[in-house]
């Protein structure tokens, strides 16, 4: 399979080309283009988070631990914003806030990461198109519903995640072909697949997840309207 540098390097080049093209077409702003570029790189690292002790899984759980720490500190502040700490009747002292943050970070970064690595197998479900679709559509839902990103931009961001994901799978399959020996390596067919051939219940679960996400997805018409409003589209007869 392709190594980490090849995956990230290829995604960076193609992501930069795609994001820059959208920016020059007037479809997105420079800030949005940078976000699309970053999400393409993130997408290409996702299939390898099931590799024990690999950089993607370390980065993923470190980021999740930091995000969890910020959330824990935020909701346990001495004067927490209304709605986040509705169960509180008295302010918490500073040491409790610190303990909450430290415990949250350590729990996510080590026990949860360890459990994830033990439960996952490399080139399993994470190397399937169904799971890539769940990640892509999941981001569209999170961005539009939770982060208040406009529907059109949320769709572009989800597409960037999927493009990066596909780059990873395609590169792994290309590296499964021995051109000099004109043969296929044993790893051929394990990276780019629709689902899990030997685990139909996993495929059913992924399809059900995608169906559930459809209810929360914003209308794709916003993305179509965005492209129709670009300078290039207006000049096209």
From TrEMBL:
Keyword field contains Membrane: yes
Cell membrane in keyword set: no
Keywords: Membrane, Transmembrane, Transmembrane helix
Superkingdom classification of source: Bacteria
Residues of the signal peptide: none
A Pfam family this chain is assigned to: YdjM
Protein name, entry field: Metal-dependent hydrolase
InterPro entries linked: YdjM-like
Membrane-crossing segments per the record: 28-47, 59-77, 97-116, 128-147, 153-171, 201-218
């Amino acid at each position: 399979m392709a190594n980490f540098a090849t995956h990230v390097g290829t995604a960076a080049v193609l992501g930069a080309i795609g994001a820059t093209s959208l920016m020059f077409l007037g479809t997105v702003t420079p800030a949005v283009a940078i976000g699309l570029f970053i999400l393409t790189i993130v997408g290409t690292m996702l299939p390898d988070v099931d590799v024990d002790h690999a950089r993607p899984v370390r980065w993923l759980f470190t980021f999740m631990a930091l995000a969890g720490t910020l959330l824990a500190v935020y909701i346990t502040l001495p004067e927490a914003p209304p709605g986040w700490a509705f169960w509180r009747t008295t302010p918490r002292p500073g040491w409790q806030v610190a303990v909450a943050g430290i415990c949250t970070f350590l729990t996510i970064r080590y026990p949860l990461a360890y459990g994830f690595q033990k439960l996952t197998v490399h080139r399993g479900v994470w190397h399937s198109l169904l799971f890539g679709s769940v990640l892509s559509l999941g981001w569209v839902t999170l961005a539009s519903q939770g982060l208040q990103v406009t529907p059109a931009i949320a769709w572009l961001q989800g597409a960037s995640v999927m493009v990066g994901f596909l780059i990873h799978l395609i590169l792994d399959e290309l590296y499964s072909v021995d051109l000099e020996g004109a043969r296929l390596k044993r790893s051929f067919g394990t990276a780019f697949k629709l689902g899990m051939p030997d685990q139909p219940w996993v495929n059913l679960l992924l399809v059900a997840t995608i169906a559930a996400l459809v209810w929360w997805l914003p209308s794709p018409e916003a993305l179509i309207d965005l492209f129709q409003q670009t300078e290039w589209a207006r000049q096209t007869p």
